[in-house]
Design a protein that fits this description.
11 strands; single chain; 323 residues; 11 helices; Rossmann fold; binds adenosine-5'-triphosphate; elongated; alpha/beta; four-stranded parallel β-sheet
Length: 323
């Protein structure tokens, strides 16, 4: 395969740039020409792509976001949109595509591969909800940002003997909330996989207050049914149930924007290099991900038909750990 393309799609994740860099430079190292597609699948449909040289990916390994831009494309969800994308790839004689992104992006990658085009996915989403990779690009950095916020909030919470409720990202998956909550010593964690009722959260916080704690921390995943809005409304009416005064913080997109840490740079570099290798060696329609410490491939069809399960053993420790 002499010519390949790379795109980033869905939510940006710190480390995407390191993955682009690895695809471009290892591709060049294998004698390939590598095209960068701007704005994900939208750019693919519009034929918005350019040849990238080794110097075009200089100085990006340490930057968050994605130099290629990302987009959410409704058109790519239609067969017509995908056929237009295919025409653009064929017109330039491109023989393979690397798709760096999360669940939706890999579903798109699988759909393109069903039209007979060779695709390799790179596992990248801060939600860590992608089947086929224990850790995805961006998770570790986002986790550390959430953790720093918890640490800071705990300092002010202790000074005023308050409870803080922090919302972290995670539409369908509580990974970020659970791990940042455990690492930050939260008293209660609310995730879609193990919903706590507002009464249960209030009771955890009340017992912390009665045990003489100076602060309490509740970490809530944005995708939980009992989300921040529900909990806030309940606590407004039942103030006395908590003991503490409560303050609310939504971390929002701050979690996405960080400089990738060492873990994400290394993971992205390994996965990007593996994706180029797969295309060069004729291994197509797979996701490259991290499994038990090794870079492994999983067929895209398995990635899109299976749901990754969150390891809930840590969740069961929350009550003991916050004693
Ligand atoms: P993140 O979880 O980090 O936000 P993601 O890859 O899951 O990333 P999505 O917005 O779900 O992000 O998907 C990105 C793009 O993938 C969509 O805008 C769309 O173009 C494409 N896509 C999603 N689902 C499908 C599908 N069923 N068929 C074809 N393409 C799809």
């Amino acid at each position: 395969m002499k010519r390949i393309a790379v795109l980033t799609s869905g939510g940006d994740a710190p480390g995407m740039n390191a993955a682009i860099r690895a695809v471009v430079r290892t591709g060049i190292g294998r004698g390939m020409e590598v095209y960068g597609v701007e704005q994900g699948y939208s750019g693919l449909i519009a034929g918005n792509m350019r040849l990238l040289g080794a110097r075009d990916v200089s100085g990006i390994i340490q930057t968050g976001g994605t130099m290629l831009g990302s987009a959410r494309s409704l058109e790519f969800k239609t067969e017509d949109g995908r056929l237009r994308a295919l025409r653009e790839l064929n017109r330039r004689d491109i023989g393979g595509l690397v798709v760096i992104g999360g669940n939706g992006s890999q579903t798109g990658a699988h759909a393109l591969s069903q039209l007979g085009f060779p695709v390799v996915g790179v596992a990248s989403t801060i939600d860590n909800d992608l089947y086929g990779s224990d850790m995805t690009i961006g998770v570790d950095t986002a986790l550390n940002i959430a953790l720093e916020a918890i640490d800071r909030l705990k300092i002010t919470a202790s000074s005023h003997q308050r409870a803080f409720m922090l919302e972290v990202m995670g539409r369908d998956c509580g990974y970020l909330a659970l791990m940042s909550g455990i690492a930050g010593g939260a008293e209660a964690i609310v995730i879609p996989e193990r919903e706590l009722t507002p009464e249960q959260v209030a009771s955890e916080i009340r017992t912390a207050y009665e045990r003489g704690k100076l602060h309490a921390m509740i970490v809530v995943a944005e995708g939980a049914k009992n989300n921040m809005d529900e909990l806030e409304a309940f606590f407004k009416v039942h103030k006395e149930r908590l003991g503490f005064e409560i303050r609310i913080t939504r971390l929002g997109h701050v979690q996405r924007g960080g400089m990738p840490g060492a873990f994400d740079r290394l993971l992205a570099t390994r996965l990007g290099a593996a994706a180029t290798r797969c295309l060069a060696e004729g291994q197509h329609n797979v996701l490259v991900g991290l499994k038990q410490g090794d870079i492994m491939t999983t067929p895209l069809v398995e990635v899109v038909t299976n749901k990754k399960q969150l390891d809930l053993s840590l969740f069961d420790l929350v009550a003991d750990l916050s004693r």
